Amino acid sequence: MNNNLVLLLSLNHLQNINKSLDKKKKLLIQLLSKNAKARITNFMLVTSLYDDIDFKSHFRLTRNSVEVLMCKMQPLYKSHNIKAGRPGIDFQKATLMTIWYLSNTETFRQVGDRFGLNRGIACRTIHKYVRALSNLLDEFIIWPRGSSETKTVQDFKNLRINYVPNTIGCIDGCHIRMHSAKAKRSDYTNRKMFQSIVLLAVCNAHLEFIYIFSGWPGSSHDATVFKNSLLGETLINNPQEMISKNLHILGDSAFPLLLVPYKATHILSDREKLFNKRLSSTRVVIEQAFGLLLGRFRRLKSIESKSVELMSLIMTGACILHNLALKNNDLFEIEDNDQDFDIQTDEFHQNLDVPIAVTQRNGIDKRNELSLR
User: Which of 59, 126, 207, 300 is such that its CA lies 20 to 30 A from the CA of 334?
Assistant: First the structure.
């Protein structure tokens, strides 16, 4: 009997201890919950439950494109996190969070809340990922050379009947809305009176970018941006390094060194009007490429960052993902309710008070020769 009594007392004592621990556990949870913010904790699970259509409608990329990106990015992202010296967010979460940020117009606070993180961690993670993503620039945005150059010219030939022969690319500038510091607003305010940075790009017949130059202030004319780009400097000083002698890049009147349309349309001959029509018909691909880029990655409707460098990296990252998607046959149609963006290009004529250089004269001579064909 004594043994049973001891056992019973011991069991009662253990039950009292467990009850006490439960009370302390509940009290601790209550204290922590007062300081902790409520966040979405299962969004990664939700994304895994999306069907392919819903996944692409939210992330603007197919699952297959995201998997290709992750294969390319995993070593780059891990290397970048080691250098940063801070433990990084789970790689898959960082990937989906960055794509979500680029594909939507939510703030860092909203994106962080969606993925169960605070605003600061979400912001740092996305910036780290975008910086690492820029290392893929030379792999996905490639200037055609050798056999690739020949194929690019043939692709333009196959694009439509009315085309400009020997075209290797089409160029234009796109103004991306941004918010700058008050002291610099005049530098970034373009002729349409909103603040922007310029994305200068050349694309091929498949709407893939083969050259980009981003980050120049929106108050600058496209011709100025072009002349300060590596492409412009090379074509001015040593054009044969970029393109063969008989090939050309199509642009509008803002690019006097390239193949541009005839001006003063009211006095043009039929031959010159036909050339302008052929050039416009071929060159439309760059406008389509910009439309596809801004339609897929809605972040480019307006970029907010304290650093112009980071804004430029975001634009570069979007262009890389644009090419990755097209190479992966990840096509995208701009939905009607997404056509509220405005592709701002600079097509007004500006007198730059610069004498016609040899390169510009060569472009004019080439245009006159092509218009006779």
Answer: 126
Higher pLDDT among residues 258 and 368, named by residue? 258
What are the CA-CA distances from residue 69 to residues 79, 105, 107, 336 (Å)? 16, 21, 23, 28
To which residue do tokens 């439950």 refer? Answer: 49
Low-confidence winner among 10-24, 137-151, 278-292, 309-323 (lowest mean pLDDT)? 10-24
Residue 87 CB neighbour total at 10 angstroms: 6
The residue with tokens 């030939």 is: 157
Check residue 277 and give its pLDDT: 76
User: DSSP for 70-133?
Assistant: HHHHHHHHHHHHHHHTSPPPPHHHHHHHHHHHHHS---HHHHHHHTT--HHHHHHHHHHHHHHH
Higher pLDDT, 162 or 92: 92
- pLDDT value, residue 110: 94
Contact 148, 155 (CB under 8 A): no
The whole-angstrom separation of Cα 216 and Cα 193 is 16
* CA torsion through residues 350, 355, 361, 362, sign: negative
Give 217's strand partners.
Answer: 197
What is the rounded radius of gyration, in angstroms, for the C-alpha atoms of the chain? 28
Q: Tokens standing for 326?
A: 């097209």
Per-residue pLDDT, averaged over 76-101, amounts to 80
Ordered DSSP codes for 257-324: TSB---S-GGG--HHHHHHHHHHHHHHHHHHHHHHHHHHH-GGGG-B--S-HHHHHHHHHHHHHHHHH
pTM over cut 0.70: yes
Q: Using 50, 70 and 90 to split pLDDT, how confident is the model at 35?
A: low
Does 284 score more than 60 pLDDT?
Answer: yes
The span from the CA of 274 to the CA of 217, in Å, is 35
CB 153 within 8 Å of CB 121: no
- pLDDT: is 350 or 53 the higher one? 53
> What long-range pairs does 53-61 form, CB within 8 A, spacing at least 24?
58/100, 58/103, 58/104, 59/96, 59/99, 59/100, 59/103, 60/99, 60/102, 60/103, 60/296, 60/297, 60/298, 60/332, 61/99, 61/103, 61/296, 61/321, 61/325, 61/330
* Of 93 and 180, the one with more pLDDT: 93
Asked if 93 contacts 362 with a C-beta cutoff of 8 angstroms, the reply is no
